[in-house]
Write a structure and sequence with these properties.
The protein is 64% helix and 0% strand. With 187 residues, it is mainly α. The radius of gyration is 44 Å and the shape is elongated.
Length: 187
């Protein structure tokens, strides 16, 4: 029975010698490191072409409106956004996510020249507040509407002051005519 351990060690030594081509060393700590293995060079691939651009998922009217808005063309942007709104009810929910942004931009566009239309701005704002009350775009639209209302109030105040200045100017002219008119001597 004592032969099995010795036999096992002999077989293990033989296997080691077969795989490495060397006999097992007496002291494993003194065994030199095996030489580095060099791998065959891998052929280089030609560079991959860039991936094809993904199609723009936005409807054409929205894309056109965004492009015109970014270029600073308010009339074209307002017309394209308005066309997008007419299609909005037929669009899938994923594309309706742009509605609050479009409504807020229309509020801005309709509040400024050359596309100034305060009634339309108010309508777009009402729709934004009603349908998207918690939208982050609401604060911007609220600010624009308040500024537009303040501008309109100041414009009316300015018109009232212009009318008052015109009335006072006429009164001054009448007083000048009275003052310059020949007077009859007392008596």
């Amino acid at each position: 029975m004592r032969r099995w351990p010795a036999l096992a060690l002999g077989v293990l030594g033989c296997l080691t010698a077969c795989t490495t081509g060397r006999a097992p060393a007496a002291n494993p700590a003194a065994t030199p490191a095996p030489p580095p293995v060099s791998l065959p060079a891998t052929p280089t691939c030609p560079p991959c072409p860039p991936p094809a651009p993904l199609p723009d998922p936005r409807p054409a009217a929205l894309r056109t409106g965004d492009e015109a808005y970014e270029r600073g063309e308010p009339a074209a942007a307002a017309a394209a956004y308005d066309a997008f709104l007419t299609l909005a009810d037929t669009l899938p929910a994923s594309q309706q996510a742009d509605l609050p942004r479009v409504l807020a931009r229309l509020v801005v566009l309709c509040s400024l020249p050359p596309t100034r239309d305060p009634v339309a701005a108010q309508d777009y704002h009402r729709r934004l507040v009603k349908d998207f009350a918690k939208s982050p775009y609401r604060a911007e639209a609220d600010l624009v509407i308040r500024a537009g209302a303040e501008l309109e109030a100041q414009r009316k105040k300015g018109q009232d002051l212009e009318r008052e200045v015109a009335r006072l100017t006429q009164l001054v002219e009448k007083l000048k005519q009275i003052d310059l008119a020949p007077r009859k001597p007392p008596g």
